[in-house]
Amino acid sequence: MSETYEFVVVANRLPVDEVVGADGGRSWARSPGGLVSALQPIVRGHGGAWVGWTGQPGDAPEPFDTDGMHLHPVGLSEDDVDRYYEGQSNGTIWPLFHDAVEQPTHRRPWRQAYESVNRRFAEAAAQLTAVDGTVWVHDYQLMLVPAMLRELRPDLRIGFFLHIPFPPVELFMQLPRRAELLRGLLGADLVGFQRPLAAQNFLQLTGRLLGLDPQEQHVEYDGRTVTARAFPISIDVAEVEKLAADPDVQAEARRMRHELGGDRRLLLGVDRLDYTKGIEQRLEAYGELLADGTVSNDDVVLVQVATPSRMRVQEYQELRARVEHQVGRINGEFGAVGQAPVHYLFQSMNRAELVALYLAADVMVITPLRDGMNLVAKEYVAARYDDQGALVLSEFAGAAAELTTAFQVNPHDVEDIKRALMDALNADAGEQAERMRPMRDQVRDHDIDRWAQDFLTALGKS
Ligand code: ADQ
Question: Where are the coiled-coil regions (predicted)?
Answer without folding.
Answer: none
